Amino acid sequence: MFSWLKRETKTEEVVENVLGELKKIYRSKLLPLEEHYNFHDFHSPKLEDSDFDAKPMILLVGQYSTGKTTFIRYLLERDFPGIRIGPEPTTDRFIAVMYDDKEGMIPGNALVVDPKKQFRPLEKYGNAFLNRFQCSHVPSPVLRAISIVDTPGILSGEKQRVDRGYDFTGVLEWFAERVDRIILLFDAHKLDISDEFRRSIEALRGHDDKIRIVLNKADMIDHQQLMRVYGALMWSLGKVLQTPEVARVYIGSFWDQPLRYDVNRRLFEDEEQDLFRDLQSLPRNAALRKLNDLIKRARLAKVHAYLVSELRKEMPPIFGKDSKKKELIKNLGTIYDRVCREHQVSIGDLPDIKKMQEVLANQDFTKFHSIKMPLLEVVDRMLAIDIARLMSMIPQEEMQLVSEPLVKGRYIYIGTHTYFKKPTVT
């Protein structure tokens, strides 16, 4: 089962070559620009080799008891260390489920000092978070190609007003920036979107291409109720996602128990097939995704350089620095407009103005640097020449290849491998 997640040797060689080149390009051409303009203090920490070498990751997000942990067990066909499943909020921690020959568990404080893992920047969220973070090693063939991150169930009502002790949405943002897929799970019986869930979804903005929405436990209602539940979910999502496009929702029941209502069996099988085929593409497109993320990072670094140099230019040489700083932060929208006009930058490339104002309040504007065109020209050449060269290294057939499943009875085949089997209804 799930043997389609094993990458071919040729693909692995291509990925390793591209990632090796990416590391060199980042360190020699983009990193100097980031360090000169304090990019890491405002946005994302410096990228390490482990960030480039990491396997594709899937992040599961949802309110409590929507089936996140059960979804992972369904994929792996086994339990993992630290698993807890129940109708109440059981998973109270972030669990990174990763491959290892021996089953085991690593606590958060030890995990963030491991240079082979990509979690070192998470230490900034403190012990309150690290005590709620762990890595579970499982010798599962599925995890040879991907890693999965389980998250605490998002609370509702009075429960969400109790502070978790760490920046929950900040941690979600960190993971969202680095994972390849974000799966939002909804329970067919619990479609309300709490305030904390709304904030969590808003923290995922800017990564819309990674988000997949799953309506889970759909077999617990009949076809007439399912139609109404689907409509209600789309209405709720429309208020939160705030996009004119209709979100793609996968409908099914992702566990190994018999279906309660069998009338929608064919629908569930087709939807599950589509979702697994999407996950199947992650290992094959890992290098392409990292290329895409580096391009996004380079564009943000350029915009950040323009913005910081503009703020530095506005500062007085001697007197009135504090008052001028407050004025610039208050009128940051005007600075944004000026940067867009002078440097032909899209307003959509600029960071969120409220977050930027919060970070700028703790910065010393006099330590900002003026514009340094050679650094920006190096990044422009990187995007125009080096990235284009790396794109050509990835064979088109590897980027476009999609196996066509065949459905036969209760089995779905990809090539010669069975990767899905629904139990007989009892």
Automatic annotation (TrEMBL):
Q: What is its main location?
A: membrane
Q: Give membrane topology per the record.
A: Peripheral membrane protein
Family annotation (SUPFAM superfamilies): P-loop containing nucleoside triphosphate hydrolases (SSF52540)
Q: Does the keyword Nucleotide-binding apply?
A: yes
Looking at the keywords, is ATP-binding present? no
Task: Give the subcellular location.
Answer: Cell membrane; Endosome membrane
Q: Where is the Dynamin-type G domain?
A: 52-283
**Keyword list, A-Z:** Calcium, Cell membrane, Endosome, Membrane, Metal-binding, Nucleotide-binding
Gene Ontology BP annotations: cilium assembly; endocytic recycling; endocytosis; protein localization to plasma membrane
Pfam families linked to this entry: DUF5600 (PF18150), Dynamin_N (PF00350), EHD_N (PF16880)
GO CC field: early endosome; endocytic vesicle; perinuclear region of cytoplasm; plasma membrane; recycling endosome membrane
* GO MF terms held by the record: cadherin binding; GTP binding; metal ion binding
Q: Which PANTHER family match?
A: AT21416P, EH DOMAIN
Name of this protein = Dynamin-type G domain-containing protein
Organism expressing this protein natively? Anopheles minimus
